[in-house]
Fold each of these.
Amino acid sequence: MLYHYCSSKSFQSIFSRKKLRLSSLLLSNDYNEGNVVSALIDTLLSPENILDKDKKEISNLLNFFRNYFHGIGFCLSEEGDLLSQWRGYADNGYGLSIGFSKSELDNLCKNYRTDGQRDLRLKQINYESSKHFPIVSPVIDSLKKICSDPIHNTTPLSGLLALASSMGIENEDIKRDEKRRSALMLSLLPLSDELYTLKNSAFSEEKEWRLISHIEGDEFHGINFYAKQEKLIPYDEIGIDEQLNTIIREIIVGPKHDTPIDVIRDLLISKGLKNIEVKKSKASYR
């Protein structure tokens, strides 16, 4: 099973509305979200004999991908009763943890789309640097080849030539520059799927999985916003009405949560759910 930690309000919403909310990952509590790939590429390219302007362009393209493929996700953990998760994601222990069947989540991704008609993927988060390198290395090789290939090299006068082009004067250097940029973009494109699956090792205790989708460019159909302190956070949803009896298997009541277990069971039964185990957290946290 995979567990989603949430406040009592979010818990009630999931069972009353029968929807899972995929919220913006760029506005999560990890300010470095989506940047691990960029930092890794920068590190791997630094010792190489690549011009600074090429490194800057690669960095700009990665930043473009990070913003163009705006990640939204529903976050889960392999651990259902972890103190750090109660503190960080379940209202400081006053919330609950919902245990989802991983196989049913896989089935959800294969057969359903979000309200905004977006595809879903269930992805395990990768925290280990040693496992990050094999993912990025093929792209690094491709980038080095493009940057060192004479056919893609640009003239020192490219800025002046760009001005000439804007005045209607065509030249081969401008065409070559556009071809080179396109080649770099195509090489980086496979990493757009990994922007929100590689994380800093400091978060490894979370053992996180995510239901992930993307808002592409200005494709904001089906997107709503909710307010959280100083942020307006975009989100999309996916209905689980048909799967409710099979997708949720367990409820763990937070260490500070006061609702009696029998009352939570009655709530579930009122929704037609009779086979969900309900138990109290073992964390002695107050």
Amino acid sequence: MNHSEAFVDRRLRALGLRPEPFSKEEMRGRKTPDRRVYRDAELLFLLEIKEVAADDWLGGERPDPRFNRLTADIHEAAKQFDSVNPDRQLANVLAFVNRDSMCDSRDLIGVLTGNALTSQGSRLPLYEKYALGRIREERLRIDTYLWLDESGTFQVFLNDVDTRHSNRLRPDFEAIIRDLVQPGT
């Protein structure tokens, strides 16, 4: 288990959820997500954990790597979910653990929607090549995106394309958000 997986596991356990890794036998010969996540005996969702590693890129000749890294992670996660959940009977949840000070959840939103959000609340279609490119369909097969970092940020982005899953997960994630905003209430 790597540091990011342990970090997400601790956060989920603190919220009353039980993450369990796939067995070595289940992983043999195919890629799988990292975890099954339960509440008591109920299997809630499948979970893949990706780390957004620090990058020392300072601009210049190559394009900003943040967006390519996020789309590559979404592309890979979709393949992992498809290997064990092709008919989408369970919700697919992708957690990003951010360790890059130059990347934040707005970059994820840009990759998923194709839009940059301005401080005035308007949308600029700056990232459509990502959202409508390589991950056009794959981004829609992931039902929830989680964004976590060491500072305590925990954001939840529900994808409402498959309402079976978004309606089922919404109460859990709304409770999680409430608990994060108002601990102990």
Amino acid sequence: MDAYIKNLQVEAQQAVKETAHWERKVQDDKDEERNEIRRKRDTAERHQHLVRTQIEENKMRRAEDRREYIEAASSHSFPLFTETFISLDEVEAYNKQVKKDFRKELTDQLECINTYKTLEKKKELDYAAHAKYKNIGEMTDGRKKERQRLAQQGRDMVQSWDRDLRLGNIKKAILSGKDVVNQTLGPGAIAPGESPSGSRRSGSRRS
């Protein structure tokens, strides 16, 4: 048991050392990663500063070259080649024509866009008007059918009321012992024992 406990203690100490070593390794890796990120950031900032410096230097150099060129052109008389010479008036006329063409192109595009919007708006208005007329027609037909239905229902109710009233009167007449044969016959009906011409048929055929 003592040997077993001693082995466990040794293993525990070894585990503690390995854990501490692993933690140091992880911490070192994290520190190295942070240092790498910081180095990359510093390098990027230096590169950015260099690029900006180069841009400013290029601007200054171009401005200086232009100034020197203007000074040299002003102090010397260059030969004039009539084949390649372009006067200031021609340059201004060209720029004016370019602006005019560009303005015309924009105007044409604007007119095309407005025409398209107008057509779309007209299409929407036509569709709305068609839908409106269609709805009005459907509503008119529906109201007409509803009025016809109500009128037919009223006629049916009147006929039913007249029929019930007539049957009630016939029932009262029957109960009072009256002859109700004519009352039970409808218009154009033929009473029992009568021919269609209106004469009563004889009970037996003559020999």
